[in-house]
């Protein structure tokens, strides 16, 4: 024990004096308004005195550990197992081996039931030896056992003066308390340590703020109050602290308040960083204020802060959700021009956006580009493409993509198979749909209600209502419950199969089952009546829907608009459009396309173009259908200047012409003697494997024959025989596809 009394060296005294100087400095900088009390000193440590016999055993154990350091502790301490008592001998051994960190850890692991004092000493040794992770793990394991926090902190304070003198140890305990979610206890520890002149570090306090914001019902208020309180108590908040506040406010959609915090940061000596701006930009995207988000990116540039991937990702995702995918890709290209490498999430959002617009060529272009960037496509990206192909009825390509996934070792999930099943159902290929259902079962995937709904939908479209009912009974037998989506899908299938009366009866059955028809149900049956030219019945359903307090959606209005336009009731359609604008119901691209399609079919291209301009002035983005309607209509009216203008705009936005639009455009150019432009379009069309109509082939057969290009002439002869005889009704078929998309 004499050795122990003389243990404290001059270096330790210097360290202790340094600690006291730090404490005095912190005390002097506390807010004078609080009238802080003088800090209490840490207690002197005095371990339990040992008997001569116990002191000798401690010395022998410590000597064995030191001398046989290359042997495992359990082997070294075999002779002492039966006589070692942690409550008596543990502290003494730690005193003698304290400077050998690895042996301290091994020895402590060997002790079966260490005392709380021993645990706290080892935590101090870990911190002093610059192994804070080990200390963190020890504290975490102890506090997770729900033992007394008060006793633990008291022992940590008691042993601090002799074993630690490193305030980081209290930071670690504070962090652990926050990590396990006892925020009130963490706050108490913060205040307790102030009594000893120790201020928890700003990094630990930031961790506390982030959990406070996420784990409490009034997180933002708590965070702001804590920032104010802790600052007065000596915490010097930094940029990350303010970023937490900005994030909390943005989560609650309080973006103006969040921007005020960003503006005030510099006044408080904290410079906003890329995280500050990116968080605020994401917040503005969430509330739909894209313009302000873009302005903030410009502001970042003026302040010399370079945007990162997260900054741009928020804007790209927001634009994709608004179906402004072309604008999203423009932002994407700007991002890449700043040498910011996109990740799979950004590519997935863009690919999904283009797939939903039906622009599969743009989606595949991005898919190839992603692979060139050495980003390996995952199940999500493949499934996104599969869904896009199925939505457009390209089932052969979708099946090829499925096999490509499998060949690359990827396992399609329920979403992948359900998309394919739905696609085959819509393509009237129920046999293939059920084959995929069986394959799902074979590989251990469980079909869900969406899968069964897709199968039933396909059966209803083929008129096999009884089979669909049997399938639904099977579904119920597996514990799945019919929901409104299932009924709506069945009603949709019946309507598309022309069984409107059965669909109406199913609506009644649904009510008897306790499920009430929603806006989708009514809109589906209204669409069927409109397509059957029964506008009066559609109006009746609309009135019934309004009487039940159901609000029409934009799809409901589009159904009515399409009905008016299909029946040539253009004045009614225009009145509906005006009414929607007056009531603040924003028409979408489909609304305008219906009017434009009908006006174009009546050769009124002046009115068609006016509708287009009105659409753009309302901020509604044109899609592939819009441009095809305009180009085809102007070409037929021989307004080639306008057709060329819209074609340039279409190409710039990443959309493609359909076969019928190509044919009309080419014939219009021919009539204006623009043979070079016509030939270029014809070759482009052939490269895309689109079939022109027979009149277009005749034009180029004559042209090549007159020019003496006999080889090309014979090639075109073979092509026209092979393709045009098979698809002589191509234009009619294409028009039907456009109508179904509208």
From TrEMBL:
Family stated for the protein in its record? Belongs to the PPR family. P subfamily.
Q: Which SUPFAM superfamilies match?
A: TPR-like
Which UniProt key words apply to this protein? Repeat
NCBIfam families, A to Z:
PPR (TIGR00756)
Keyword RNA-binding tagged? no
PPR repeat boundaries on the chain: 166-200, 238-272, 273-307, 308-342, 343-377, 378-412, 413-447, 448-482, 483-517, 518-552, 553-587, 588-622, 623-657, 658-692
User: Per its UniProt record, what InterPro entries does this chain match?
Assistant: PPR_rpt, TPR-like_helical_dom_sf
- A Pfam family that the UniProt record links to this protein: PPR
Q: What is this protein called?
A: Pentatricopeptide repeat-containing protein
| UniProt key word Cell membrane | no
Signal peptide range equals: none
